[in-house]
Input
Amino acid sequence: MNQAEENRYITAYAHIIGVQESVVTEYAERKGLAALVDNAYQLLETPEQRAKHKAFLDLYRMSSSLTRENPILSSPTSAAGYMHTVIDQVHDKESMVVAFLNTKNRVIDYEQVSVGTINSSIIHPREIFRNAILNKAVSVLICHNHPSGELTPSNEDLAATRALKEAGEMLGIPVVDHIIITGLNRDAVYSFRAHGILERNAHYDAELCLTEKKVDFENKDKALDEITAKLEEGIKEIFSSGKYADYLKVMSRFHHYSLNNTLLIAMQNPEASLVASYHAWQKRFERQVLKGEKAIRIIAPVEEKRLVEKEKIDPQTKKPVLDSQGNPVMEEQEVTVKRFRVVPVFDVSQTEGKELPTLVKELQGNVPDYDLLFEAMKSVSPVPIEFKAMKADKDGYFHLKDKKIALRQGMSEIQTVATAIHEISHAKLHDRDPQQRGAKGTENEKDQRTQEVEAESIAYAVCQYYGIETADNSFGYLAGWSSDKDLSELKVSLQTIRDTASELISSIDDKIQNLKQELEVEEPKTRKAAVKAVKGKVAALAEALQPYAFEALPESALQFEDHQLNQTESLRPWLETVAQEDRSPYTTRANKLLQQIDQIQEPSAIYLLENGETLTLLREDDQVHYMLTDSLQKPVSEGFLGEPDLMLDAAKDLSLSEVGRDGITATLLTAEAIEHLDVLRVSEPLVSFSHSEHAEIPDGLHMPLSQANRLMERLDQRQAIDRQKSDYSGPLTYSTDFRVEYIKEGLPAAYTGKQEIGAGDGSLSHHMQVTAQERLSDRSWRNYLKEMGETQLQADPNVLGDVRDEIIPYFNQHTALTFLKERTEGYQAGLPNIAEERREGLRAYYADVVNYVQESRQQMNLNSDPQIPDFPQMASYINTKGVERDIDHDGAPGRVDIDDQDGRVQVTHHLDKRDGVAEKQSIRERLRLAKPEANKNQNEKLNCVEREIV
Amino acid sequence: MSIKELIFSLTGVEVNTENLADLKAHPREYTESDEDASLLAELFFLLEQTEESEELP
Output
């Protein structure tokens, strides 16, 4: 900028931010022109000026993103910052944006894929990945906003994320993260990856993950360079954030004590961090000192006013005033005298009340291979690591005297790993042992700021290497400990940070490899071998728990022979205690051992095969009896396995081989899953509503599909009418999330979707059909199919062609059978009014109709080639030349027509319907046609004319 | 805040677009008066110069 531009710049800044131009000029001369934007805190005196400055920074970031090279999304924070610049109306409507990333996680392009509600059925993977392919993206990052300001993801968000994760994995375009942002707070972000929902998938540094590590040791230095560069960038972001200004504002209210008082505080309470007087806590920080807390005594200056006799001074001549005798005139004057006295102060830990602002955020989420990683960290730590109960404001410490590291119990896995590495770094670099210190030389001793910056930077670098995102915590922590925005502590320690992080990573990697080899021992085949393995693992766990002062494993617990299978039960109480105690990381190991004991004791197991067959294994003494049944539960094959004492998992493989089903996937069913499957096998599809905005549908409500159809149709029509009323003030529609579970060809399946009640879709089945039809007519879907090849996508249960041609007709058949059953039950209830001579015949007839329904359902659910039984003929039961009419039956064998309650829907032969259903009319059209059709329908019913489903 | 709101809070000018690039290129098209457009020009000058000065070594 030349001088004229600088002057114009200052004028514009003063005008826009609302600061006097002379003040701006003086500030710019003193601190440089850039400080007006980067370091203007001291310049801005009023809240209005600060708000404008913040608004300017926000606009600057948006503006900058237009002209600069596309950014690299290196953390949830940076991703959120970017997404705020691209999502329109972030606080008005829910919308979803997908960013397409290259190998460096740099944004290639982005696309707003939806506006409105986010739903797994609406946000189909094709919409996300279609342009990812066109853009040659290596990975994608997805973001959607919650206009409400609430960051917590809904069940639908979670379901959608999992679906996208799976689709991404299938296509080889992993999802780096799915984040939620709000329009209320720019700093707020929810990261699915940070919460473990996208773990093992992709990372902000895709090359740097634990399980798919691609950085070899030759490239590690380069990786560490990138990580430390990112670290600097992250801390600078914190410095420029509003959060940092708020933090400074509150921290500036704390008094800075003299060296003497600092020593006095440290002597009385070594862990004291923020200290203030009783009244200061109350007035300045809205916190109350806890009852019974002992004060820290410091020496404080006290000013006292006293009257002293002094010579009177002439204000004009500034000389003493003299009396007539030439003596100075004396007068009493008030003077301030400084004295010192002992005053009580209290540390923040001794107070409660309004939370103080903090730059750090406790990390949540799990870490892949946490057990392995933590075990490895423990072995590379120069001092033992233990877990202890601590106050929530402390995550851990390295005890200089006891030479041990303590971590707070109950932290998330991510927070535990980050804290452990932080403390290990302190133990490696900042041990003040006199011998150690002698070796290093006192001149190298670092101040606390440098020590904290080093430890946290190493923790950040190591965590990044293992794909663990700690930016939310690390950047704020480092900003808090940095003495200036030039990051001088970080810069002088860069080499130490890189060397120590590199050394730690190498050691941890080596240890992880060793542990993995130990774990990759083949699963024991026999129960005897399994007992031996469990004993060994329990002994190892007991040994690992020794430093934790945990309840010891009773000596006698392992003193039994390997064939004494029931003795493993004696290990259960101790393992259950370990699993229940919050003593990371051993809860996982204890739970796994409990599972293994269960497997040893298991008397039977049922597996569902991918072809719909079921394999049942039953232990009979030392032998295993296997039984294979088809999808209709009819026996296919059975026998005993020759090898004795087999674990059921090993027996499963042998059994599959015996019955000629080698290589087929078999899923072990839990007791709950078996019960659920048994219900589904003989029933119509079951609907559960996970969430609905409509008051008549509570969360978790479930019912048969036919009932759900009627409910949704009724509510949909009522909402359309209510909305027209002049005094109506509710929403246009009510979003309702639903899931239909069903069994088809013996295999369980589900359809998940969202219906807007009041949008005119009518019943649930009609909504599904309309949705499928609309999407099938979408050109982008067809293009996508061309790009991807249909085979791959047909594996998806929600593939639209299947939904329209197979699933909806199947649902409609079930619904029709339900109507038939309900009508029959109505007739059954009226039997007492029927003439006695006809009653028995009708009773038998109606019972057979109900059996027909049941048998038809089972065939439809379990058989790939359904064999629908013949419909009972009333003539076979009674003489029909009377008043009774054959219910819903047209007289043709194997043909049924069934109308629903309002007389508008009719169903034809079950097998005919499997071959396709005519497109359903909209509710409006149906309503329009209902009246003229009604009379015709009556006639048709009498003449038993077949009709397609409408 | 949206771009509209940010600009309003900084200059008091109401604009009818969220497209910052277009707004920078054609401020008069999205404002009601020449005076508003010149206020926007002042703001954009500040943004541009801030960006340029940040890129200096």
